[in-house]
Amino acid sequence: MKKRLTSGWISSHMHRKIVTLFVSSIALVLILFCLAPLEKRTPIKNYHTRDNIYPHQPNREYLFYPANEELDDLQGRRFLKVKNLRTPKDDECQADPDGREKRKLLPNVIGLGAKKCGTTALHYYMTAHPKVKVSPDHEELAFFDKKWENGIDWYLDRLPEVAEDEIVFEKTPKYFVYPPALDRIAETVPNAKFILVICNPIDRAFSDFNHKVRKSSGFRNFLAQNQIQNFDDFVMRTSTRLRILKEKKMTALLENDLYNSTTNNGHLSILTVGFYSYYLQKFIAKFSRQQFLILTGEEIRHSPREVMDKVQGFMDLPRCVTGDNFVFNSTKGFYCVVNYKGEEVCLDSSKGTSRKGEEQKYLIETAEELANLYGPYNRELSKLGINVSWPFPTEEP
Length: 397
Ligand SMILES: Nc1ncnc2c1ncn2[C@@H]1O[C@H](COP(=O)(O)OS(=O)(=O)O)[C@@H](OP(=O)(O)O)[C@H]1O
Description:
Keywords: Glycoprotein, Transferase. Helices cover 41% and strands 10% of the residues. It has two domains: 47-200 and 277-345, Rossmann fold; 202-275 and 357-383, no CATH class. It starts with a helix and ends in a 14-residue tail after the last helix. The model is unreliable at 1-7 and 58-65 (pLDDT under 50). The chain is an alpha/beta fold. The protein binds 3'-phosphate-adenosine-5'-phosphate sulfate.
């Protein structure tokens, strides 16, 4: 009897506990459900087409109506005619007046790359314009590549607040070559505009090689283990391997194996980033041609005024940055830029290392090998309507 009473008491006590637990969990779920809308969540799809319409929203009506063939010009040559540029009104080129309403916005202009082609110089030239705003310290935010999992609010937190006539610009050179970045950008900011800088792929590879030697102990170990002394050795070991790859294998390499730590192929990107037409074709297929401005590293280095005319025209901004903003620094061997606050900004000593001076820094055989590697990709570039001045064989082999 006692036993039965006890067990009866235990089970009714347990029963009450279970019911209480059940009811409180339901209540908790309901409370969380009611509170959920209070938490601020930024929608990730089609960001610029929802509440974030922007005066400089790309693809709005053009201020000047270019002829159709001009619209097709990926290199922005139409903006070299001053009549196609916007003359600034009154104080449009002054520093931003205080007290204006500002808000966070995802970039409406994205710098895609390519790495080591002068993307940082362009970034500084652009911020000489009072209407172009970037992340603090000009940081590459890498959101669409390695920081994607952090979420869109993480990205917004690191971007500047802007007034209604200002542009948000962010550049991360890996966006151009890291396969998932393209779909992520298309999903998030399908109406963004893109600025791509390409440069002689041989010089680019040389610059990238030296950069990796300076910055990466892993790369230095790789060179030591493989008894690779310099860029010439590196090219002779790797370029011929790449040149014999059939299309399927090359695609597997560019889409997966470069990023797969088990294949240990990461160093090949020193050469493959220069396959510009491969990457550009994928971007152009996802967006419209009018969303792109393609500049060359050579014009960034030698003709900054023309570059900024193209950039300001492309972004439909008043022409605040002119030739007067650029000062050639003969010690550095590069242009420095005077921004709208009157400060002269030169890039630090990590930039302007391999291209300083005109002397050849690698063997002629190395240049020939790389000309063969890049020849087919350069021919594709010209089929896309992009003219460059790099000396490459033009005939099919
Ligand atoms: N105005 C000015 N000042 C300094 N450097 C200039 C400038 N214009 C172009 N360059 C060239 O830019 C090269 C670096 O390219 P990136 O900025 O794209 O490199 S990075 O991808 O951000 O690391 C850098 O390459 P290296 O010469 O190999 O250092 C420069 O040659």
